[in-house]
Specification:
By secondary structure, this protein is mainly beta. The chain has one domain: Beta Barrel (Maltoporin, Chain A). It contains 7 helices and 43 strands. Strand 33 and strand 34 form a beta hairpin. It comes from Halopseudomonas bauzanensis. Pfam families: Plug, TonB_dep_Rec_b-barrel. It is found in: Cell outer membrane. InterPro entries: Beta-barrel_TonB, Beta-barrel_TonB_sf, Plug_dom, Plug_dom_sf, TonB-dep_rcpt-like, TonB_rcpt_bac.
């Protein structure tokens, strides 16, 4: 929460109406002679509101704002955020999902909705998938990059703040209704979407327009797919970069999104406010994945032919993610004292009620004369027999059922006291927060195999009985398509209890409780043109993890706890050079707990091999330094430059600890461990401007550009059995791109709006494959996405719009070591949408 002083500011720091008018005027004198009519809709309005929020904030932050008709510039929250400086997006099936800030992985950032933390639906992550939030439910998105002591200290890159619609965002009755249809070029499927938002104010008691109601609804069913070829990094670099395995995949997905929001505001007088915020989002995937797995008898070079084992696989599962958030709060100003209190409840979950994890059809014999061409996008070379369904038989079906819940409850209290210090306006703020979080995972797995012993004939198990046509695959030849319904029918008559996999099911069940108690104190002081915010936050963390391990074939309960606390000082300074320009500096400290997958309490000890989570991990601790300048100019105009530096202790990575400590006698022991230190530093540049002073039609031109240059360095180490000693090497932090950038060129008038936008991020380390050998690291190739959108007002309140996404048909490419060696290649194709929006505001 950013503190805004209630007392009058000193003359040098006051943002008077005159100063604000100057700040938003164009730098050309010509505009003073031709005053601009400021629109409240469109690209410029969104930028103008975002820059105004950014300018007034006590923190360094970037903002994306909806305009007066409730439109964000993109389809979901993740894709809207990728337009701001320092941010990049992890995409899933071509759609923006997780957000990275300043090159730091999405698990190192936090997300709040209406002031309360949002938990993560996935069993192993802290990162919140932002695509579960339809843009219609969001009024603004902020990325706070420098935390003040009154904020949770749980982010290294930034805290993403989501604010939903309030009735006090509009003067009176507001509504917006949209209907659209989209077309996916990869699957040639069409998909519908409906959404609406409403708000109005009502008079209660003696007040006038003092009670507000706002509601929003969004529903979408999207059908799409992708084509994939991957090696999983199965290259033998010790023998001339020979390939061991290729897997071709075809994904067909139906994704249904439903979003609901209801917000109530009551302002009985100018000194008091009570609010209720609620948001519900449901995200359901029905996914069918066809797979063709080819394993060479001996690793092969491109163009070579040899024997190969081939299997055809099916995955078919339904998965539903839900996010619920409820916030109740109020504030009151009592003279120089202010009090604010809030209670929040959020619950996220992922439910897979039961589906085919894998259905494997293996070939009766190995195939000969099998090879491949190309190493970046390997294409299988084989004879006709490999594509004949009669050569494959069902050998195994793995059925999975999983439910994950992540619940976060919190209460917080903030008190402020305005006073004068030697004639200078000052405000003391102090308060506390109690947070209780619980992550629970329940996985059940059944493995159906040895079908011949169950009385099934060879004919019943032959793939020809399960295939339904051929698989539509754009990266080469694939062959028969497996019917998930036929597989389900086969196993439906079997006694499921006879096939329960107790080991995999019990080891993956866990409960992790995380309790955080926090208090803070800070003071804000205005000294003429300088604002100083200094404070201290204390956070005490208690973690309890309960799970099950398998120790040489025996199940054992594993209950652990880990307690730690942190003192986190912070100092912010804002200096007004003039009415348009200000300098910002900040020294902050933050702490990020390990992910739930890293703290996983389950383990397996099998002979001299082990794999386990590490509930005793230390949290990441970071000291952060930021310095920058902002200059505001004209309509939607600003230019800024910021440098940042982060000194991180205890960063976490996966390593083999065999040969050390308690695992000295093991040949393999895979777990997560703490590294010593890492550094991240960089430069953010941003520029935006509407060129309203140019002659028509150029006065509708708008430009928004930003780029971020980031570097990071971390040392990892592992015991090398050949040397009999520890060996280390330096890496980039996973997820960190050296360059990210956005460029948007727009044009608009009172009828027509056009926008061409590009989003770029350079390559980054995705995962350390082998601590001792950089050749097996997984890196994601650079990506450049180009999108186009247009809107035209048929009437004052009726707009038709068109959008085209991924016009360059950008792919997702992961490589192993060097860029020419595939780990995963996936392409999606462009998509298009057209729709209508009816508004009243």
């Amino acid at each position: 929460m950013s503190v805004q002083l209630a007392t009058a500011r000193s003359p040098g720091f006051r943002l008077s109406a005159l100063a604000l008018a100057i700040a938003v005027s164009t730098p050309l004198a010509a505009q003073a002679q031709q005053p601009e009519v400021v629109d409240v809709i469109g690209q410029a309005a969104q930028l103008e509101q975002a820059l105004d929020d950014q300018r007034r904030a006590n923190t360094i932050k970037s903002v994306v704002h909806a305009d007066a008709i409730g439109q964000l510039p993109d389809d979901n929250a993740a894709e809207a955020l990728q337009r701001v400086p320092g941010l990049s997006v992890e995409r899933d099936q071509g759609e923006g999902r997780f957000v990275r800030v300043r090159g730091l992985g999405s698990d190192l950032n936090s997300v709040t909705i209406n002031g309360t933390l949002v938990p993560a639906p996935e069993d192993d992550r802290r990162a919140v998938a932002m695509d579960v939030l339809p843009s219609e439910l969001v009024q603004s998105l902020s990325v706070v990059k420098t935390l003040t002591p009154d904020m949770d200290a749980n982010s290294l890159g930034g805290t993403i703040e989501v604010e939903s619609l309030s009735a006090f965002d509009h003067d009176g009755l507001f509504y917006s209704l949209s209907a659209e249809g989209s077309h996916d070029e990869n699957t040639s499927k069409n998909s519908p979407k409906l959404s609406g938002a409403f708000s109005n104010r009502f008079s209660i008691g003696d007040g006038v327009d003092n009670f507000g109601v706002a509601a929003a609804l969004s529903w979408q069913e999207r059908k799409f797919g992708s084509d994939n070829v991957e090696t999983g990094g199965a290259w033998d670099f010790d023998d001339g970069a020979r390939l061991e395995e290729i897997e071709q995949r075809r994904y067909d997905i139906t994704r249904e999104r439903t979003g609901l929001g209801l917000n109530l505001d009551y302002r009985p007088d100018e000194h008091s406010e009570v609010w209720f915020r609620s948001l519900y989002s449901r995200y359901k995937d029905d996914e069918v994945r066809q797979g063709l797995v080819t394993t060479f008898g001996d690793p092969q070079l491109p163009g070579e032919l040899g024997e190969a084992e081939v299997a055809r696989e099916l995955k078919a599962r339904e998965e539903t993610q839900e996010v619920k958030s409820f916030v109740f709060g109020g504030k009151r100003q009592l003279g120089d004292w202010g009090v604010s209190a809030q209670a929040g409840y959020s619950k996220a979950g992922e439910d897979s009620p039961g589906g085919i994890g894998t259905a494997a059809f293996e070939a009766d014999d190995d195939f000969s004369n099998v090879g491949y061409s190309g190493t970046r996008k390997p294409r299988l070379r084989a004879g006709q027999d490999l594509y004949d369904a009669t050569h494959f038989s069902l050998t195994e079906v793995e059925w999975e059922k999983q439910k994950t819940t992540d619940t976060e409850k919190n209460i917080k209290l903030d008190l402020t006291r305005d006073f004068s210090l030697s004639g200078m306006p000052s405000q003391l703020a102090f308060g506390g927060k109690l947070s209780r979080r619980e992550k629970d995972n329940d996985l059940d797995i059944w493995v159906f195999e040895d079908f011949d012993e169950l009385g099934f004939s060879d004919a019943q198990l032959n793939l020809s009985q399960f295939s339904r046509g051929t698989t539509d695959y754009g990266l080469g030849r694939f062959g028969p398509r497996i019917s998930d319904r036929a597989v389900k029918d086969l196993i439906s008559g079997l006694n499921r209890a006879d096939f329960y996999d107790e080991e995999e099911s019990r080891i993956n069940d866990f409960t992790i409780e995380e309790d955080i108690n926090a208090v803070y104190i800070m003071n804000t002081l205005d000294i003429d043109d300088l604002r100083i915010i200094a404070g201290l936050r204390y956070e005490d963390t208690s973690i309890k993890a309960r799970g099950t391990g398998l120790d040489q074939g025996d199940f054992v309960a594993n209950n652990t706890s880990n307690d730690y606390d942190h003192w986190l000082p912070g100092l912010h300074a804002i200096y007004q050079l003039n009415d348009q320009t200000q300098i910002r500096a900040a020294w902050t400290n933050s702490v990020v707990r390990p992910t739930f997958g890293q703290m996983f309490p389950g383990f397996v000890l099998d002979g001299d091999e082990a794999e386990f989570g590490n509930p005793d991990l230390k949290p990441l601790e970071s000291s952060n330094f930021d310095l920058g300048i902002e200059h505001y100019m004209g309509r939607a105009g600003a230019v800024s430059a910021f440098v940042f530096y982060k000194d991180i202790d205890n960063f976490i990575y996966t390593a083999d600890v065999a040969g050390t400590g308690a695992y000295a006698g093991f040949s393999e022991a895979i777990t997560s461990i703490n590294g010593d230190s890492a550094t991240v530093y960089g430069l953010e540049l941003a520029y935006s401007q509407k060129f309203s002073w140019l002659p028509s039609p150029w006065n509708g031109l708008l430009l928004n550009a930003n780029t971020t240059f980031t570097k990071s360095d971390a040392d990892i180490e592992q015991f090398d059995p050949d040397l009999g000693a520890m060996r280390s090497r330096s890496i980039r932090l996973p997820g960190q791109s050296d360059v990210t950038g956005n460029l948007t060129v727009g044009w608009e008038n009172d009828k027509l709006s056009l926008r061409l936008s590009t989003n770029y991020k350079s390559n980054y380390l995705d995962e350390v494959g082998d601590v001792l050998d950089a050749r097996y690291d997984y890196k994601v190739d650079d990506q450049l996405f180009v999108d186009f959108s247009a809107g035209y007002f048929l009437r004052d309140n009726l707009q038709v719009f068109f959008e085209a996404q991924n016009l360059t048909d950008e792919s997702y490419y992961v490589y192993t070591g060097k860029r020419r060696y595939n780990a995963q290649y996936e392409e999606y194709g462009p998509s298009y949408k057209i729709g209508l929006t009816l508004t009243h505001f």
